[in-house]
């Protein structure tokens, strides 16, 4: 085996929490389709170039379901977390069924709806920042703002009591598990989550409210062009997990990046109209996005000049693709005014992130409110001391201590 064919372990560790692994640049240059060992011991092909990642994510022949016999297992326990759980299989993966599901659910995530939610989000952010300031310095931005805000918002949209949010946080961690929890604990947590959500849906059937689940129920069952009971359940759980953990972590990482080099923060204070492009750039620049998107190839395909046999599992690293210098000028610089910015943080094609308008709105609101309320915000520890969350499918920082 030549030195070039050395199989890397994946996820590839990084020296510093906010920095990309040095290997990304080398892989994009020399080995755009690289063999990697997953936490399970199975092998997959890792894609790091922009064009390749976009091609695979947008190709309907590549499925996100990793339940085929020869698909790679992501983690040592069979569940594989969110990607190959039974829940993931209930929501239609492709074709007209998938389009119909997206249309039904997507109505709740339009830019128009987000504009309507903005004042309430702003109020929530103000309240959380007030509470953080009252608790005194140094504050912890992840627990004080990053986590509670998206949970309040998604609970509100689903008509779920926000008081239950600590349980959701734990359930969603177990669903995003790669190496952190044992199988018995995951099974127990998922059973509790299913039971909770079933009860919640039953209550909405009896007494509908002004929320997404009530509306999906009103759309009728599977026979009437609506969702089956099981699909409702999977949708509620999926949105709760997707709607809080990812954005919660991104809020922390975004603020971490902007404060790590405080000239970035100063630039936004001087020109708050940059908030919108700054959010997009934080999404592009995020070197700690987590596992990436796995795809299973049902048929032989050519990607990046390499023929991949049928049955290959590929992992698309959107974060590596987002630093591809052939697409982004000064790809390793954080340019808060960058435009256009066709980053792949939300994926591409039929499976691009359904909640991206929600995530963007939450990130913009948090940044606007922080700049206005805490202009003197700074990290309370050196940026080098920030630590990554390990063992979950998505990346985040353990804590973000701040002063103001």
Question: In words, what does this structure look like?
Answer:
This is Cytochrome P450. InterPro entries: Cyt_P450 (IPR001128), Cyt_P450_B (IPR002397), Cyt_P450_CS (IPR017972), Cyt_P450_sf (IPR036396). Pfam families: p450. Keywords: Heme, Iron, Metal-binding, Monooxygenase, Oxidoreductase. This protein has 404 residues and is an alpha+beta fold. The chain has one domain: Cytochrome p450 (Orthogonal Bundle). The protein contains 15 helices and 11 strands. A 6-stranded mixed beta sheet has the order 1-2-3-9-6-4. Strands 5-11-10 form a 3-stranded antiparallel beta sheet. It has a two-stranded antiparallel sheet with strand order 7-8. α5 packs across α7 and α5 (111-135) packs parallel to α15.
Integer tally of domains: 1
**Can you list the strand order of the major beta sheet?**
1-2-3-9-6-4
Q: How large is the radius of gyration? A: 21 Å
User: Residue share in helices?
Assistant: 40-55%
Helix count from the secondary structure assignment: 15
Percentage of residues in strands? 5-15%
Q: Would you identify the CATH architecture?
A: Orthogonal Bundle
Which topology does CATH recognise?
Answer: Cytochrome p450
State the name of the first-level CATH class.
Mainly Alpha
Structural class: alpha+beta
Overall outline: globular
Question: What is the makeup of the main sheet?
Answer: 6 strands, mixed
Mean pLDDT across every amino acid position: 90
Task: Give me the strand/helix succession.
Answer: EHEEHEHHHEHHHHHHHHEEEEHHEE
Low-confidence stretches: none
CATH superfamily: Cytochrome P450
Number of strand elements: 11
End-to-end distance, in Å? Answer: 55 Å
